[in-house]
Design goal:
- The chain is of the alpha/beta class.
- The chain has a domain of 123 residues: Nucleotidyltransferase, domain 5.
- It is built from ten helices and eight strands.
- A five-stranded mixed β-sheet has the order 6-5-4-7-8, sandwiched between helices.
- α3 crosses α10 and α4 packs across α5.
Length: 294
């Protein structure tokens, strides 16, 4: 669905007050007017001082943010909406430290905001399944350490990467951090991110044999110097992802890696709608259920 473009000044004008933000959430949740989430009744009393709706039938109480990504938040909605705009409009991503400075909140608060918004990003991407010709490979992410390099190196996290090949260009992509590259982790990845019966190109890693269980598997032994020819798109995506992590976050721990991968994929999959991204991300957040803080 095409969304209107929105500039920073337009965003400020549209969502510059608590009431404007609350009205936007209300319109999304109840486009045809209030509906009790408990009994479905369409009439309620509204208490301005507490900003609470009380159903006239079952007497249950709810706020406009109940059951949404903003559930039980103590942060002003204006700051939530600004966070969405800043995250969506910054092509290279934004760190929790920088977001905390921009919003005037603590680092833990900014970190919690980013976690919740990235969860909404991941959920929106999980709706789609890759199809047609797909390049599939694995890579490793982590800090530099002495000792063994590549597969089996200490302190690194395995990541599975799949990208659609549409002629000379890339289509949609998906990435998943996994404990190890095994038949089990590959099966789980394929079940969640690919339609069945697609043409999947891989290297000849033995674990990749599980691809043929649900897909048309095309495997080829690929020495490092030949990999860019057999799997060009997936290697470009791996390189771009690592630049994204190092450039914005200066490296990443395994604890938060999947969040960063989710953000990278969400942004890449919507690269042709960059000017629409703030409103697209807002819709993704408005439609998402509450996310537990950590």
């Amino acid at each position: 669905m095409k969304m209107p473009q929105v500039s920073l000044l337009e965003w400020q004008k549209k969502f510059g007050t608590e009431k404007a933000c609350a009205d936007a959430i209300t319109r999304y949740r109840w486009p045809n007017g209030f509906m009790c989430p408990k009994c479905g009744h369409d009439t309620a009393w509204f208490t301005k001082s507490r900003k609470i709706y009380q159903c006239t039938k079952c007497k249950s109480q709810t706020s406009v943010t109940t059951g949404t990504l903003f559930h039980s938040t103590n942060l002003p909605l204006v700051k939530w909406f600004w966070a969405i705009y800043l995250i969506a409009s910054d092509k290279g991503g934004i760190s929790a430290l920088r977001l905390s400075k921009q919003l005037g909140v603590s680092w833990p608060t900014a970190r919690n905001i980013l976690k919740k918004i990235r969860t909404a990003m991941a959920h929106r991407d999980s709706i789609y399944r890759l199809q047609d010709i797909i390049e599939f490979d694995d890579t490793y992410v982590g800090g530099k350490r002495s000792g063994k390099r590549g597969r089996g190196a200490g302190g690194k996290k395995s990541v599975l990467v799949a990208v659609e090949k549409r002629g000379p260009k890339a289509g949609y992509m998906a990435m998943k951090a996994v404990p190890n590259v095994s038949g089990k982790s590959i099966r789980n990845f394929l079940d969640h991110h690919l339609k069945r019966g697609q043409t999947v190109r891989t290297d000849a890693l033995p674990a990749m044999n599980s691809v043929q269980e649900t897909q048309k598997h095309m495997a080829r032994i690929t020495p490092p110097e030949q990999a860019p020819k057999w799997l060009p798109m997936v290697h470009i995506m791996i390189g771009n992802m690592k630049k994204f992590l190092n450039g914005t976050y200066h490296g990443v721990s395994g604890k938060y890696l999947q969040e960063y991968l989710d953000e990278f994929c969400y942004r890449f999959n919507r690269r042709f709608w960059e000017c629409e991204l703030p409103l697209r991300l807002l819709n993704a957040c408005l439609s998402h259920a509450p996310v537990t803080a950590t």
